[in-house]
Hints:
By secondary structure, this protein is mostly helical.
Amino acid sequence: MTTTLPQQTTHRVAVPAPAPSGISLADPGPLGLAAFALTTFVLSFVNTGLFKAEPVVFGLALAYGGGAQILAGMWEFAKGNTFGATAFTSYGAFWVSFWYLTGHTTLAGIPAADVEKGIGLYLLGWTIFTALMLVASLRTTKVLTTVFVLLTTTFALLAAGALGSSDALHHLGGWFGLATAGVAWYAALAGVAASTFGRPVLPTGARG
């Protein structure tokens, strides 16, 4: 008697398709620089003493200087850029704190001299932080280093103006702030142009 064995069915296991590689993020640097530049530009005009309209900068400080820079910082973290992440997130937080300090904090009842010293201490802290970032920027580009040189000077003048109750130093800090904004805008344009043209267009003094 012949026994017929049941035919074996070969089961093919579906091999999953290879997982797509990680999403490629665009360079968030130009966004962070542009947000920083515009907010600094408007506030610095006020600091020069040319006109008094500080509330005009509040919306920029919260949405663009603050929100956009913090987002740029988070995207720099995702790209593995520690310097960009630290700088953009920190200065974004600076603008949010400025928005809160100047627009939502009452200093009534505090002696004017103490208020000036408190603001001076606040600005001095940012001067120190910016000076530290200046050191780190020496391994980036010459344009970015120039931004940090000007920004360190700006914060130092504003801090000295507040601590010494000097309008002259405060106004000078405003002019240096305008120069800072101009160079930051240039750096932002260089980054955007390099992306849209597919090659470097504006020199930034890249270091090896």
